[in-house]
Amino acid sequence: MSKQLILALLFFVGTEVTSQESSLLPLQPGDKIPDISWGKFLHCPLEGKFSDLRGKLLILDFWNVFCAPCFEGMKKLDSLQQQFSGKIQIVLITKDKATDVEKTFKRIKRTYPNLPLMVEDTVWSKLFPYESVPHHVWIDDKGRVQYITYAHNTTAANIEMVLNKKVLELSYKQETGEFKKSELLLLPDESSISSKVIYYSALLKRIKTFGGGEIKYIRDSIKQLAGIRAMNRSLLSLYQEAYGREYRYANRIVLDVRQPELFHFPQDNRYWDDWLDKNLFCYELILPINKASDIKVIMQQDLNRLYPYDGFIEKRKVQCLVLTRITKEDKIRSGGGVPVKQQIGGKIMLCNQSLHTSLFGMIANANSDLPMPLIDETNYKGNIDIVITSQLTNLELLRKDLNMYGLDLVRRETEIDMLVIRDK
After folding, report:
1. What is the number of domains present in the chain?
2. To 10 degrees, the CA torsion angle through 182, 188, 192, 198?
């Protein structure tokens, strides 16, 4: 084949892809999918075009490498594909580069699910634009968009109903619209008033077009403003942010309220859509930059003022799991050198790392669902070198590893600060 012919073919393919992308407009439920090519696959590639899957229920799972729930959800999607083999096709789609996807799967030590995994997407995300992931699109057996919804709605029961031609009322996940993010939530960037702002705090209901929850701290040295923006967060998470990271786990919270169901996601995900609409909020606080240290205090005051609850810190005697030293000999002192924090083949290696931030932080995070809080009473100030060979959630084996270094996890009733949320 001549060089001129090869160049002509490359030009034709490139022109076709560019034309395909530029002509695409966002689709809505009821719209028919154009007969387009799939794209680049990293795993379990699909051949041909979209129309080759007509006759099956198609579920698109849009995700990215920074989304931990997306990776957890892939296990469920893999199982659903096997359960409904031949009747449905689930496709994983990301805009991320193939190299980034490969690195992430390797880093988190996950194997690829037995599902088509499309990477470097520039086409399907134009048809179904989104702000947050996972983002799910259901396409019926005739090639029409059926649902654009949240991942928690992709269940065996719902799939079974759709295959049996039953109509579902799934929440519409619409994350594009006129309500755009700006530097200040309540004032567009181009507004002349935004340059006059000195202070405000605002509480809003859930804004779906902003997608999933995020918390962002604001510091504008030009306008001399500081603040915090929390988007689409539960009331519990707002209180946790206001009172500090040490209360980010449920075992550091006392919920003394008549309706605790308003603070927690329902266990049955059939009720999530309604719960999310009623119990997610947006909060923004803007104040002079020289008052930045008051952000948490003012946020606490706002929450207690605006809701029928009082949040406060109170010392309580509770059963704790306490990290403590059991020998006078220092078996963990670091020998110095380059700081290392890595997990290799099931082993956790910490070299020249902080005991509290690294070791204790990892143990507390891994066991955050325990009913009792984890407390660090080692009072160790220097850096440490330590190797843990057991799973951090296997407390019996973990204690054996810790004992070798003069450390232990001991159950003990201890008086500690707890975040209390109480009805007024």
Report:
1. 3
2. -60
